[in-house]
TrEMBL record:
Listed InterPro entries: Aminotrans_V_dom, Aminotrans_V_PyrdxlP_BS, Cys_dSase_SufS, PyrdxlP-dep_Trfase, PyrdxlP-dep_Trfase_major, PyrdxlP-dep_Trfase_small
Function: Catalyzes the removal of elemental sulfur and selenium atoms from L-cysteine, L-cystine, L-selenocysteine, and L-selenocystine to produce L-alanine.
Domain (Aminotransferase class V) ranges: 23-391
Cofactor needs: pyridoxal 5'-phosphate
Record keywords, A-Z: Pyridoxal phosphate, Transferase
The keyword Secreted appears for this protein: no
Domain of life where this protein originates: Bacteria
This protein's name: Cysteine desulfurase
PANTHER family tied to this protein: CYSTEINE DESULFURASE, CYSTEINE DESULFURASE 1, CHLOROPLASTIC
Lineage: Bacteria, Pseudomonadati, Verrucomicrobiota, Verrucomicrobiia, Verrucomicrobiales
Gene3D superfamilies: Aspartate Aminotransferase, domain 1, Type I PLP-dependent aspartate aminotransferase-like (Major domain)
Protein species of origin: Prosthecobacter algae
Enzyme nomenclature, EC number: 2.8.1.7
C-alpha cells in the first residue's frame, strides 16, 4: 500500500498535539475520515440537499438517488442477498436495540434462552437484558478463556433447545479476538435460534460476508470505517424483516394511514420512520467507495502486519500484560502495565501526542473476568505506520520509567 499517499487523504493526522506529532491509535473508538468523505458531505449540502423519497423535484431526486445508492453499496460490501435487507441506523447500538426490541417482543417467551458471550460490548448486553426482563427469557453466556478466546468446550452444553437467540461480537473491541461466528451461528441456527452478530469492529477492517457467516442480523457503525458519526446499518434476512412489526412509527414507513390504523411499507422502509440522516448515509457511501479502492485485503494485511510488529515490541515492556490471543488478532492491542492505572498512562501518552484509550471499553463484565479495573488500548487502521508504533514504544518505555 502506498501509505504516504493514503495519509495525505487524512489531513487531521498532520498536526501536533502538545508540541508533538499526533499519533492516533484510538481507531477502535472511531476512525478518521478521508477528505473524499468530507468533500462528499460538503458537496451534498452545497449542491443536492433536499428531503428524500417524497419530492419530485431535481434536488430531491438527486438526494434520493445518492441515498439509495449507498444501500446498494452496503449490500454488496457485506454480501447481503438484496439491498432491501439493509436498514439505516445511527450505528451498531441502534441496530441491536431494534432487534432486541422488535424481534424479541414478538418471539421471546418466558423461559427462552438468550445466549451471549462473556466478551460482549455493553451494546450487545444491555439491550438483551432489557429484552429478558420484558419477556421472561433468561440469559446465558459463553465463557472467555484466559487467552481471550471463547471457551468452545464449555459452550457445547449451552447450545440447547431452549436457545432462541444467539448474539455474538465478531471482533472484540477489548481483546482483538476474532470469533468463529460462522460456526457458532450454524450451531444456533441448527437449533432454530435467531442469530445476530455485532460487527462494529469488523466491517471496513476485514472482508465481511453476511451470507457466508449465515447470521440473521448483522449490525455495524459507519464511524469506525471512515464514515461520519451517527450513521450505520443493520442487515436483516428479508424473511425475518417481513415477519417483524415496525419499530418506530411515523412518516416514510407507511402506505396508508387513517385516524384509527395504518398499513406499513415493506422492509426496509418499515423500519425507517421519519426523515433519515441523509447526508451521513451519502458519506457512508463515499467511505465504502474509498475502502474498496484501498482494498479490504490490503487493509486487513496492513493491520495484521502492524499489530504483529506492535505485539512483538510491546511484549518486551517491563510489567506488561497483553490481553487476547496473539493469533488470530484484529488490529488492536489492549494491555495493562503493572506500574500505572490505564487512565494515568493514557493521560501521560496524551502529553506526548499519543492518542490511546483507557478504561473498561464498554466491557465491564470482561474486565471483571480478567480482574482488571480497565486496560489501555492501542488500535490501528490502514493509515497508521511502523514509525508511529516506534514512537508509541518510546513513549511507553518512558512511561514505565516515569511511573515505576
Ligand atoms: N460493539 C463493539 C464491539 C464496539 O466496539 C462498539 C463501539 N465501541 C459498539 C458495539 C457500539 O458501537 P456504536 O457506539 O457505534 O453504536
Amino acid at each position: 500500500m502506498d501509505l504516504l499517499h493514503l495519509r495525505a487523504d487524512f489531513p487531521i493526522l498532520d498536526q501536533e498535539v502538545h508540541g508533538h506529532p499526533l499519533v492516533y491509535f484510538d481507531n477502535a473508538a472511531s476512525s478518521q475520515k478521508p477528505r473524499q468523505v468530507i468533500e462528499t458531505l460538503v458537496r451534498y449540502y452545497q449542491q443536492d440537499n433536499a428531503n428524500v423519497h417524497r419530492g419530485l423535484h431535481e434536488l430531491s431526486m438527486r438526494a434520493t438517488d445518492a441515498f439509495e445508492a449507498t444501500r446498494k453499496k452496503i449490500a454488496r460490501f457485506i454480501g447481503a442477498a438484496r439491498e432491501e435487507e439493509i436498514i439505516y441506523t445511527r450505528g451498531t447500538t441502534e441496530g441491536i436495540n431494534l432487534v432486541a426490541q422488535v424481534w424479541a417482543a414478538q418471539f421471546l417467551k418466558p423461559g427462552d434462552v438468550i445466549l451471549l458471550t462473556g466478551m460482549e460490548h455493553h451494546s450487545n448486553l444491555v439491550p438483551w437484558q432489557l429484552a429478558a426482563k420484558r419477556s421472561g427469557a433468561v440469559l446465558r453466556h459463553i465463557p472467555v478463556q484466559e487467552d481471550g478466546t471463547l471457551d468452545l468446550v464449555a459452550a457445547e452444553p449451552l447450545f440447547d433447545e431452549q436457545v432462541k437467540v444467539f448474539a455474538c461480537v465478531h471482533i472484540s473491541n477489548s481483546l482483538g479476538t476474532v470469533n468463529p461466528v460462522r460456526e457458532l451461528c450454524a450451531k444456533a441456527r441448527a437449533l432454530g435460534a435467531m442469530t445476530l452478530v455485532d460487527g462494529a469492529q469488523a466491517v471496513g477492517h476485514i472482508p465481511v460476508d453476511v451470507q457466508a457467516i449465515g447470521c440473521d442480523f448483522y449490525a455495524f457503525s459507519g464511524h469506525k470505517m471512515c464514515a461520519p458519526t451517527g450513521i450505520g446499518a443493520l442487515y436483516g434476512r428479508y424473511e425475518l424483516l417481513e415477519q417483524m412489526e415496525p419499530w418506530q412509527g411515523g412518516g416514510e414507513m407507511i402506505t396508508t394511514v387513517t385516524l384509527e390504523t395504518s398499513a406499513y411499507k415493506a422492509p426496509p422502509a418499515k423500519f425507517e420512520a421519519g426523515t433519515p440522516n441523509i447526508a451521513d448515509v451519502i458519506g457512508l457511501g463515499a467511505a465504502i467507495d474509498y475502502l474498496e479502492a484501498v482494498g479490504l485485503e490490503n487493509i486487513q494485511a496492513h493491520g495484521m502486519e502492524l499489530t504483529e510488529y506492535a505485539y512483538q515490541r510491546m511484549s518486551d515492556l517491563p510489567g506488561i500484560r497483553i490481553l487476547g490471543p496473539q493469533q488470530p488478532r484484529a488490529s488492536l492491542i489492549a494491555f495493562a502495565l503493572a506500574c500505572a492505572h490505564p487512565h494515568d498512562l493514557v493521560e501521560y501518552a496524551n502529553t506526548y501526542g499519543l492518542a490511546l484509550r483507557g478504561g473498561h471499553h464498554c466491557t465491564q463484565p470482561l474486565m471483571k473476568r480478567f480482574k482488571l479495573p480497565g486496560t489501555s488500548r492501542a488500535s490501528f487502521y490502514f493509515y497508521n505506520t511502523r514509525a508511529e508504533v516506534d514512537r508509541m514504544m518510546d513513549i511507553l518505555h518512558q512511561a514505565v520509567k516515569f511511573f515505576s
